[in-house]
Amino acid sequence: MLKIKIPPYFLPEKKYILHILFTEFLNIPINIEIKDGVDWKIILPNNKLIIFSDSFFSKLGSRNYIKKENIPNAVKSFESQFTNHTATPILWGHINTEISENKITCQADIFASAFFMLTRWEEALEGNKDQLGRLPDENHLAVKFNFSHRPIVNEYTEMLKKMLLHFGYKVEDKHKYSVKITHDIDFFKKYSGLKSSAKSVGGDLLKRKSTRLAASSLKKIWHIKTGNKKDPFDTFDSLMKISEKYGTTSHFYFIPGKIGEDDAQYNIDNKKVVATIKKIIEKGHKVGLHASLNSYNQKDKFNTEVARIRAIHAEITEGRQHYLCFKNPKTWQLWEDAKLTGDSSMSYTHQGGFRCGTCYEYSTFNILTRKMLKLKQQPLIAMETALARTEPSPEELYLAFKKLIKTVKKYNGQFVLLWHNNNFNLPEWKKYNPVYEKIVAFAKP
């Protein structure tokens, strides 16, 4: 067991981040002691010592850290034998590391930096939000300083591991690479009625300016209505087959809405929707919650939706928010109070990357109650609609996914992928269809 001594302020925050890095990520038991000072001190069983500067919390005293002035104006990078001489970004502290026979002194505050990334407290600040209440990608510190493509918390964890190994403390890596294939069901059908059919044909004529596409759409609608063809958005069977082919499971997240509520496009209690959910479960795949547009900030609405989907399948435990909407810490607390155990809403909306700075599942933290939650965050690494904004060709899109998957595999993390069920048969998305299976094939464990 490691003994860790910490200064006596911001104890809930410090105990949380030590639990995540040592207990959850490194699988190392720790004993925390409170002692005056301005350092994080790790004492090994052989009395060797590893010291990190407490550069962030020590300067705050009793002041609230959730303030805009506490966001760093610059990010430093440091290198040492414990970072494989790769410049690792740090948010607080200095870049110096001193190594002696019995002691390592590192002036980088990796613990406050990791806490910042995992708790997403920068997203609790007022201002700089988009029309849906989200912090736009370009306003994230990691994007501003160009390290959003790196899981820096994993880098800190690897550095800790190497420091411990340097002093003879063995660390067993129990992480195993895995992949989680998810599909948000924003649209259940393309041709759900006269209005949607007319909209589709009108789009062919007015937007795409093609009488040929309009005629083709009318023909499709006729075959679908007479039961001779599947609706274009009914890709459930093919998605499950691809997952099964590569030894993975598909996770389908349904919006538990009713038409007329926000932007709900289908009724969750529709007979065909319920039958599809039951079929997915019977085939051994997973169903989860895709909480609707405004539910992230409305307790009653959120709880109503959880009750609706649990009425169909009582064992719903996971999912994500529609449009990746998030209010910190209210949204996580709503999921916690509803006894949901897994959320994967943490992703960028216009690019791939590591919004939480990690590719590991981890326990979340309520920055207002200052308590660790049972709710686990499974960081969403890549969403097809986000990556397609920066990688317009199928080849570029595949390479971007491949690069992210390689990074996750390097750390034996979990690659969480989102690909919407409705995109496969949209004219503007058909060119990407072959890419999907290639990505699943490359991502398989």
Protein model, in words:
There is one protein chain. The chain is α/β, with parallel strands linked by helices and 445 residues long. The chain folds into 3 domains: 2-166; 178-190 and 233-443, TIM Barrel, CATH 3.20.20; 192-230, no CATH class. It contains 14 helices and 17 strands. The strands form 3 sheets. It has a 9-stranded mixed beta sheet, sandwiched between helices. Helix 9 links the parallel strand 10 (250-254) and strand 11. Helix 1 (11-25) crosses helix 3 (110-119) and helix 13 runs parallel beside helix 14.
Short overview:
By secondary structure, the chain is of the alpha/beta class. Helix content is 35%, strand content 19%. The mean pLDDT is 93.
